[in-house]
Design brief:
603 residues; alpha/beta
């Protein structure tokens, strides 16, 4: 290391500076006085005061600590561990092995940051010794100087594991309930660990994995953590602060009741496991006590209920291994935090040729086809990842890749009630659009809908309220948006599906497209019903209906829309994938500004 000092420095001062820096920095130092090329003094770091081959090593103190850690890793009482296999679930530390153990399931050795026995992907764990004084016979003596008396169940880690790990090449925070410790219930020390993990995620900008298996707050120990400023209620405040800042993914492995059920619904994505998961605001016993209703937990809040009726579950896994596979796929579409672009992959040709799109789309606007078949001719092969498949099936919401780029697809599904937009479908789409916008995932709307459904039941189910949320989400999204008028785009359906008025980067049509206030049948009935009723001859009336229908369709045909520059372009169906890829690439860095306001009032 070369150091220059002032020209007035004496040789003694130069030598003192050289020795001091060499000792402090542990490197060779040359000190030059002024501009001299030859050093006035040089020094090397001295030899260490201890022999490099010393045989010092751990004492009983360290060995005792490792024994305590090994004991903590065993979890709660053995009788509760033995019951896990009957319930079809893994012990929490075996679950961490599954998630973070690497391709060969190896465990860490401690030489790469992981503690002995931890999965290779676990970087560190926080709070192993939480509640140690409350249960462990080797805990320090009490305040009175006498040995603490232990009673009751084991409470290792206070029933919660938190830490940092590498998952699918990504740094993540994790929490995992230990169901062998009082059914994964939460008490003061576990709550503190949970809150710290969330608050650190806000600072690091890394995704969070919640591996939930909790029966809720520990009722007999609620003092000190339930209503406190830094208590269990702060979970949901932190969830709200994290929402849209970093991806939050929750997997349910057991019955999550009351307060524990809020973490999965606050998360961006929730995975439930068949035959194992449930979540509800109250247990069946509490429901019966309050309402008189007798119901089992699966019917109250099992996977089917939340996948098909409430919409709270995004994905349903067959078992623990499948849950991990689903999340591994899911996280590949997401950035680490808001403001970053989602990761791209190498492009793949689509599963089916785009040349089949034209034949796939029936000429009649009322004949069904499966929107999945259309997506498979646009998206990269093996990249379509659908969310909330069983909820609001009139709209398909899915991630996919087009030319390697993650895209969020919102597609009307003609096989489900002709693709009409029902309340559940509108709500599902709104949440998906909002999530895509939060994490910089471009949006593709595939429009083929007769519009929002009408009728007394959908009014009671809040079609207007939920429809406005979908329109609001589409209006407010600032990511690149492309809209394809696949076939029918009637009524306010074209608004919700990213029509020309909603600031899309492009609206392109296929030759089968139509845009109108309503479809031909409804329009003729609304406008010409009295005129047609006056024609007595059935054949003459049918001919007039056909003439009016053809005339009306000329006015809403995609060629008329392109001629009037309502839409940007009509694209040959075989070119649709390439056209979308080019447009998403070109508009990748588009800038959009929203009005300067605190926030809207719609969501």
């Amino acid at each position: 290391m070369k150091v220059h000092v002032g020209a007035a420095a004496t040789p003694e001062e130069a030598e003192a500076i050289a020795k001091s820096l060499a000792e402090h920095l542990g490197v060779d130092v040359d000190v030059h006085v002024g501009d001299a090329e030859t050093p006035a003094a040089s020094a090397e770091p001295s030899e260490p005061s201890y022999p490099l081959d010393d045989d010092l090593g751990p004492t009983d103190r360290e060995r005792d600590l490792r024994a305590e850690i090994a004991d903590i890793r065993e979890g709660g009482p053995e009788k509760y561990r033995d019951r896990l296999s009957e319930q079809g679930k893994l012990f929490v530390r075996d679950r961490l092995d599954l998630w973070f153990g690497g391709e060969d399931g190896t465990r860490g050795t401690g030489d790469a940051g992981a503690t002995d026995g931890d999965p290779a992907g676990v970087k560190f764990e926080d709070g192993k010794f939480a509640a140690f004084d409350d249960w462990h016979p080797d805990a320090p003596a009490g305040d009175d100087g006498e040995e603490n008396e232990r009673g009751g169940d084991r409470l290792p880690g206070d029933g919660l594991l938190t830490g940092a790990a590498e998952f699918e090449g990504r740094d993540v925070h994790f929490m995992a309930n230990d169901f062998t410790v009082k059914a994964g219930s939460m008490a003061s020390k576990g709550v503190e660990k949970f809150l710290r993990m969330q608050q650190r995620a806000l600072k690091t900008g890394n995704p969070v994995l919640y591996l939930m298996d909790s029966s809720g707050g520990r009722i007999d120990q609620q003092t000190g953590f339930f209503a406190n400023r830094e208590g269990i209620g702060k979970y949901y405040y932190n969830h709200s602060m994290l929402s849209g800042a970093v991806p939050q993914i929750c997997v349910l492995y057991g019955p999550c009741i009351a307060g524990a059920a809020y973490t999965p619904v606050f998360a961006d994505f929730t995975v439930m496991v068949e035959g194992m998961s449930a979540m509800a605001i109250a247990s069946p016993r509490m429901v019966e006590m309050v309402t008189g209703e007798e119901i089992d937990l699966d019917d109250l809040g099992g996977p089917r209920v939340h996948a098909e009726e409430s919409g709270s579950a995004d994905l349903i896994a067959r078992d623990e291994e499948h849950a991990r596979e689903l999340v591994a796929d899911l996280i590949g579409y997401l950035p680490d935090q808001a403001g970053e672009k989602p990761p791209q992959r190498e492009t793949k040709p689509p599963k089916f040729s785009p040349e089949g799109i034209d034949e796939l789309i029936p000429e009649s606007p009322n004949r069904p086809y499966d929107a999945h078949d259309l997506i498979d001719r646009i998206a990269d092969a093996e990249s379509v990842f659908e969310l909330k498949e069983g909820y609001g099936p009139e709209i398909v919401t899915a991630f996919c890749r087009i030319d390697g780029r993650p895209v969020g697809v919102v597609a009307n599904q003609p096989t489900e009630r002709s693709g009409a937009i029902f309340p559940d479908a509108a709500e599902k789409a709104a949440e998906f659009i909002w999530t895509c916008d939060a994490y910089e995932i471009p949006l593709l709307y595939l429009c083929d809908t007769p519009g929002f459904m009408a009728g007394s039941q959908v009014e009671k189910d809040a079609i207007l309220e939920k429809g406005k949320k979908m329109i609001y989400a589409t209006s407010s999204a600032t990511v690149p948006k492309q809209t394809v008028v696949v076939r029918k785009a009637y009524g306010a359906g074209i608004y919700a599906m990213g029509g020309p008025a909603y600031d899309p980067e492009s609206v392109i049509g296929l030759p089968s497209g139509e845009i109108g206030i309503m479809g031909p049948e409804a329009a003729i009935n609304a406008v010409y019903a009295r005129k047609l009723a006056e024609i007595d001859d059935p054949e003459e009336r049918a001919a007039e209906e056909e003439r009016l229908r053809a005339e009306y369709r000329e006015g809403i045909d995609v060629h008329r829309m392109a001629s009037e520059v309502v839409i940007d372009e009509i694209v040959p169906p075989s070119d649709l994938r390439a056209e979308l890829a080019a447009r998403f690439d070109f508009y990748e860095d588009v800038r959009k500004d929203l009005p300067d306001k605190k926030h809207g009032t719609i969501l």
